[in-house]
Predict the structure.
Amino acid sequence: MLGNTGSIRWRRSSLTLLAVLLVTGLAAARDKREEEAKPSHGHPVIWQDPGDIASRSLTYGSGGKDAQPQPPFNFVKEDLKGSNPKLVVTDAAGVKWKVKLGNEVRPEVVAARLIWAVGYFTSDDYYVPRLQVANLPRHLHRGNQYIQSDGSITVARLKRYPEGTKKTGDWDWRKNPFTGTRELNGLRVMMALVNNWDLKNVNNVILKAGPHSAEPGSMIYLVSDLGASFATNGFSWTKTESKGNLTSFYQSQFIKNATADYVDFGTPGRPALDHIVAIHNFASRINMEWIGSHVPRADAKWIGNLLAQLSQDQIVDAFLAAGYDNGEALAFARMLERRIAQLKEL
């Protein structure tokens, strides 16, 4: 039998071994997570030549007509991430879609189409004015105001990532493989063009393209959340004013300053002063202002020349596809055309 001293030593050795195994296991799990999150296992890509821009359909966007979500829809779960109510559903083909509700729906659908039109990657976004979902719970944690008495949902955006891709992580506006390139600078201009002021890094996604995708073996970089567009330069007094608001968009500033070499844009702008009470939120958004500043003039002009290949009808189609009426669609399109002309004239 072990004496008291031997017993104590045995217990200490056992505890030490257990601690080592626990630390080793935690370290291994951490290393595995970090390895899975690394975007370095494929060629990074953020833009591709769009080809004949004038022939691109902004009615259907990146997913095209054939990939539209098909009813009937079945409830899978409620997604509680982010600030907007969201659901996950499957369609008749078993395809999984993320449904967003609220005032980001329409501007996001339009922004995705415009950004895709000039060669950037986007999710496949579709607007559904009335969505019937089987097995939808009687009460959701968020978004009950969008559910009608017959159980249907009004004004929904359905999104999926391109077929054959898988999300692997987020990317940083400051630190990424494209820093200083014309393509990244062009994307910065696109954010200013549509007044997308919510440029948090968590809204940027890296997708790993599988062998059957359009970009096999690539790591695709895209902006996945474009809902805070077509209104103010920054978070305003209300969400209604700062997302998809024709009057706000008309009154907003596009180009703040242009020198012989660089251009400063109004978006992203700092939030309204009432948000200074939320210090963290206010400070973080001030730190985003650089994204729209000091953009090389040549790169801004480059993206302007690509955008200029879009017809007014194509731009109007993007707004009609998001549920805007004819008058609103035309008004937004004319304002965008003026901005595009400013880029071309740089």
User: Anything to note?
Assistant: Residues 4-37 form the longest helix (34 residues). The chain has nine helices and twelve strands. Residues 178 and 184 are 6 Å apart (CA to CA).
